[in-house]
Design brief:
Elements: E1 6-11, H1 15-20, E2 28-32, H2 42-51, H3 53-57, E3 62-67, H4 75-82, E4 89-92, H5 98-114, E5 123-128, H6 131-135, H7 137-141, E6 147-152, H8 154-161, H9 173-185, E7 189-192, H10 201-214, E8 218-221, H11 227-233, H12 238-255, E9 262-265, E10 268-271, H13 272-296
Parallel strand pairs: 1-2, 1-8, 2-3, 3-4, 4-5, 5-6, 6-7, 7-8
Antiparallel strand pairs: 9-10
Bound molecules: coenzyme A (COA) and magnesium ion.
Length: 297
Amino acid sequence: MPVMRSVFYVPGNNESFIQKSPSLPADIITLDLEDSVPPAEKAKAREMTRDNLKLTGSGGSTVYVRVNNWETLMTNDDLEAVVYPGLSGICLAKCGHPDDVKRLDWKLDELERRRGMPIGSVAIQILCETAKGVINAYPSATASKRVNSLIFGAVDYTKDMRVKLTSEGVEQFYARSHVAVAARAAGCIAIDCPYVAFQDVEGYEKSTREGRQMGYEGRMLIHPSQIEPSNRIYSPSAEDAEWAKGVVEVFEKEGIAKGMAAVSFKGKMVDTPVYDNARTILKTMEEIAAFDKKRKG
Ligand code: COA
Ligand code: MG
């Protein structure tokens, strides 16, 4: 699975933020053409984003661009401007329906052909951030093979639900859980919502740990200070690694080798799904280590 612990947002029209972005250790940097860019700046942001795709990725981060949703009539112009080599994925804002994803898939296919890029090389990430988008998360995620991740967008979601966005997030509970489950059902990575109170480091870490337990494997980030904690929290800890190695060892030596698929480890039962889960943790660690090694060059 791709490594997406930190999905960091940079407004596509902000020259100084873009210049700073290659120095930031985010797994993904997303240049934004949507809501962090005012209408009068959209054209400038498209140009600036296209011109800086390679610079943004020069520090080792994977580069995505967030485009406006189809209803705005801006999506086509956004895509025409930015689908060039250097781009790894498109995040579709306010995705509401599988047809939105299919339309994006077709357009990406066309642009990849026209621009000599490998067909299928640009991934799709969908933002589930409306009531409709949350309900349709699974059908949307399975509408194209390109979809690799789903983001739960709490800011637009609470607006759509006509409720107040809080740091505790009680109002997000159902949707946040639903998007995580839909993502996993579709074989995609679940990316948690932005935490807008970016100066509240303690609250951010608490909320991120909660999301991790719901199945999120990365988070959409708005401020550089959120990148390091995110990379840390979504990486298996030394304790997780020790537990996973212990489980694998005991299950293989004391279980499988002796004709049993249930054994005891540190006072708890270990059976096949526990063993599989431990192996997934070890695999995730390998993927993260390979990603970090590649990033450091
Ligand atoms: N990308 C790149 N650099 C950023 C950044 C970002 N998103 N956010 C902050 N920085 C930089 C600042 O330029 C500053 O750099 P410096 O120390 O070299 O001068 C440093 O990080 C600290 O920034 P700070 O002063 O704490 O933040 P701010 O008040 O300038 O900006 C926000 C706060 C929230 C407005 C800003 O972080 C931001 O625009 N975030 C992204 C918003 C976004 O993309 N929203 C859409 C998705 S929800
Ligand atoms: Mg939004």
